[in-house]
Design a protein that fits this description.
It is found in: Membrane. Keywords: Membrane, Signal-anchor, Transmembrane, Transmembrane helix. This protein is of the alpha/beta class and 795 residues long. The protein folds into 3 domains: 279 residues, Aminopeptidase, CATH 3.40.630; 180 residues, 3-Layer(bba) Sandwich (Glucose Oxidase, domain 1); 142 residues, Transferrin receptor-like, dimerisation domain (Transcription Elongation Factor S-II, Chain A, Up-down Bundle). Helix content is 41%, strand content 14%. The strands form 5 sheets. The chain has a 7-stranded mixed beta sheet with strand order 1-13-15-14-16-19-18, with helices on both faces. The protein has a 7-stranded mixed beta sheet with strand order 3-2-12-5-6-7-9. A 3-stranded mixed beta sheet has the order 4-8-21, with no helix packed on it.
Length: 795
Amino acid sequence: MGENEASLPNTSLQGKKMAYQKVHADQRAPGHSQYLDNDDLQATALDLEWDMEKELEESGFDQFQLDSAENQNLGHSETIDLNLDSVQPATSPKGRFQRLQEESDYITHYTRTAPKSNRCNFCHVLKILCTATILFIFGILIGYYVHTNCPSDAPSSGTVDPQLYQEILKTIQAEDIKKSFRNLVQLYKNEDDTEISKKIKTQWTSLGLEDVQFVNYSVLLNLPGPSPSTVTLSSSGQCFHPNGQPCSEEARKDSSQDLLYSYAAYSAKGTLKAEVIDVSYGMADDLKRIRKIKNVTNQIALLKLGKLPLLYKLSSLEKAGFGGVLLYIDPCDLPKTVNPSHDTFMVSLNPGGDPSTPGYPSVDESFRQSRSNLTSLLVQPISASLVAKLISSPKATTKNEACSPLELPNDEIRVVSMQVQTVTKLKTVTNVVGYVMGLTSPDRYIIVGSHHHTAHSYNGQEWASSTAIITAFIRALMSKVKRGWRPDRTIVFCSWGGTAFGNIGSYEWGEDFKKVLQKNVVAYISLHSPIRGNSSLYPVASPSLQQLVVEKNNFNCTRRAQCPETNISSIQIQGDADYFINHLGVPIVQFAYEDIKTLEGPSFLSEALFSTRATKIEEMDPSFNLHETITKLSGEVILQIANEPVLPFNALDIALEVQNNLKGDEPNTHQLLAMASHLRESAELFQSDEMRPANDPKERAPIRIRMLNDILQDMEKSFLVKQAPPGFYRNILYHLDEKTSRFSILIEAWEHCKPLASNETLQEALSEVLNSINSAQVYFKAGLDVFKSVFDGKN
């Protein structure tokens, strides 16, 4: 773990580069002369500094001064502590020169009794002139010193400068992203992903990112067996591969790699001969209907992907007694432009992280559990064309332009033999991590996450889009950093490994640094699979960040000829944001382009990983303008969160989201509605009494801003429930999909208790939601009380 320890910019992890500098009262600014040890000269120099400070305030320099004071209190900056002694808060007496003009008796206060002789008067005047000359020279020196230590092109911290963001983002060009994308896809053919990781590390380092490192974990991967899985019809003895092709050498030649990777990672392995029972989408009503007419014990379920999380549906099938699952995507659920009839795909049954070290990092000497499979079911993804052969029916047909879904009649019996072959091995998963250290709050992190190709997984190209976009933003950002500017907060860039197997790289890193991340992470910006279509921009954001995303999207629309209305929601998404949402309660933002027809279809189809070729991504975005738009939108959100004095989070939006989730006529919600009303009242007070004044630069005290931001960044943690159904988010602020506007765990509980007069599962779910709302309300109220006691007590 030697190299892992330096992968975060934190004092607990690094010694020299990351150590916070403490500014002692007895330290002098390096620019002070040794001759200032004389008490008289120190006094005159101090008076001069007061005068200089007044001039700086009048010229708009007071904003820099405020954040310098904040930095002095926190002891976090290495860059601006040089000015802490020379630029003090504006509470000093009036300057010497101003007092000479305003106070007629000033000389009598600060000089000896005037001598009677003219000679003495002349000497006294001469002394004053000499002193003024010396002070003037010192003023020039100190002014030069301050100027050279404050880069002229860096806007003062504590002010919002939209031009700064645009200056950084305007250097992002679609052609550069295309070039980077094409360079990356040439590397995936290597059987080991080390070449890709090395390429990313080398490129990020050359761009100027600090301390770019590999963070490696040895994890348990479930890989395809030596030969593809098969499905055999008992009635005819015909053997098929998952894509519907016969089991022959000729059929495997052209697509042997795709056939090999058409599997469910962490499925049970073996052979099962049984009747196929069509369970449609595996919803609760589907299972109840089937169990009334058939014995499902140890049978094979024919299951459609979509509508609910796959892990939840498999859990229900396992409890019902099924022995195997043939998983497919109905063509009617996809846009007409997509023809997946012969496409094979991969799914992972891993909820997240290394299965052999659940809940703790996979570091050296960690205890490893024996978990080669995460379900007792034999699970095999198959194509729609194979489903059509199993049910002896043509593939989904169109009647009067309406698609006919694939369906096996209940009165027909199909017996098949399915064989699943997988191999479990310990393999190394590599993350690439680098950062830009923040100037005033280096211990607050904005994490930006992409993912790269992992060996032994499907050779899709979404990772290349993801990596090209994050690299383009790093290039633009570092060009500004090299000229002296830095964000207020630290930006951490991560390229995750092992994403296809259950977000293993991000989970292990998160578990490894959990204590640090719980305290310091402000937000997570996801760049997972940014180009999935080309017809609609599809942003997903936490409730507290939706207003910021709307603002950025509207601003982007003003620069484009066509910009349809975009719906921003908080829903479950695929990718490495999972750990940050469900275990850290961190607000997230993700921009992606989708096919609008896909958005209208069932949710959770994205759980299937297809072998997307680079040519397909270039067909969807030939000019790479969509890539450029995603980079700039994400970049602007990153810059604003990293640089705004007050975090751009909206507390009231969380309370409103909670109330919206409780609308309807569902039973047993009166207590929840009452508690949600209290939460809204507290959030409104917090928004008006604390957030609104803090956004006024004149009332922006550094300690007040720090306290306020600490409250804002932890708002969502109250909504992490202890346990959720398989595949459901623990963070209950996120819906299952856009079609549902209720707390997901309550939807599942209400569905579960329909046939029962009372249900313990429902009561537990109601209690979880009630406790979350109450916790959030207490959190806001406690924050208000702290502000009142601290600041009212000072007045």
